[in-house]
Amino acid sequence: DGGITQSPKYLFRKEGQNVTLSCEQNLNHDAMYWYRQDPGQGLRLIYYSQIVNDFQKGDIAEGYSVSREKKESFPLTVTSAQKNPTAFYLCASSVLGTASTDTQYFGPGTRLTVL
Amino acid sequence: KNQVEQSPQSLIILEGKNCTLQCNYTVSPFSNLRWYKQDTGRGPVSLTIMTFSENTKSNGRYTATLDADTKQSSLHITASQLSDSASYICVVSAGTNAGKSTFGDGTTLTVKP
Question: What are the residues of chain A with a beta carbon less than 8 Å away from any beta carbon of chain B?
Answer without folding.
Answer: 4, 31, 33, 35, 40-45, 48, 50, 56, 58, 88, 90, 92, 94, 96, 99-109, 111
